[in-house]
Design goal:
4-stranded antiparallel β-sheet; 222 residues
């Protein structure tokens, strides 16, 4: 699959992206199209969320107050993927490690972990689980969470897209992919998805000038 990225424009309204989407699929307007403008907005919403997660373009942070013995905590409503989770120990901040299903609440020897300072985390259906759970005699009280957030929903054609200008073409390319994915064979869909994912992350590295980490989402509890 060959993908070409043209120089993005500075115009990032939904109307502009709808026009570019229609141009890419060879349709001039909504009167003779497979998709209404509302359907194209839905595709652009999926595409925007995908690009935001893959590039880390929309990042936010929050703190979670720990409770003695509690393992599961709610994440913000705009949560999309974890960037990092830290816990303060003395004057230092320690990163929690992501764990798999079979690791949850179990130590290196396979025994159930007792209460202590949290060291691992997993995402279960948009909730955060930690292990071990906090002991009430430990002064650590909060988790410091950096996460990729969901972009603002595109509900109006006059609305501006939240992402940076250089993501415009990526959003359109993903919208075209979602529009056509049912016509692909499973092999074609996988190949196109992988190619677009790699291209998106490589483009982000070029424009952001930093490595783009692969977001961790729902690895556990799927």
């Amino acid at each position: 699959m060959v993908i070409a990225l043209t120089q993005p424009s500075n115009a990032t309204t939904v109307t502009t992206l709808i026009s570019r989407f229609r141009s890419d699929i060879g349709e001039s307007d909504s009167t003779r199209s497979r998709f209404t403008n509302a359907q194209v907005r839905d595709l652009l919403n999926r595409a925007t969320q995908t690009v935001a997660t893959l590039t880390g373009e929309v990042e936010d942070d929050t703190t979670i107050t720990l409770v003695d013995g509690q393992a599961e905590y709610h994440l913000p409503s705009d949560f999309a993927a974890i960037s990092s989770i830290r816990v303060k120990r003395g004057i230092n901040y320690i990163n929690l490690e992501q764990m798999n299903d079979d690791e949850f609440g179990v130590d290196i020897d396979g025994n159930l972990e007792s209460k202590a300072i949290p060291a691992k985390y997993a995402i279960f259906n948009d909730s955060l689980r930690i292990a071990p759970t906090l002991a009430n005699y430990i002064s650590t009280e909060k988790l410091y969470v950096n996460y990729y957030s969901k972009p603002v929903s595109l509900d109006s054609n006059s609305q501006s897209v939240q992402l940076d200008w250089w993501t415009d073409n990526l959003v359109v390319m993903w919208a075209v992919f979602f529009a056509n994915e049912r016509s692909y064979t499973p092999e074609q869909r996988l190949a196109a998805f992988q190619s677009l994912t790699q291209f998106t992350q490589a483009t982000a590295t070029t424009y952001i000038k930093r490595p783009v980490a692969k977001p961790q989402t729902r690895v556990a509890g799927q």
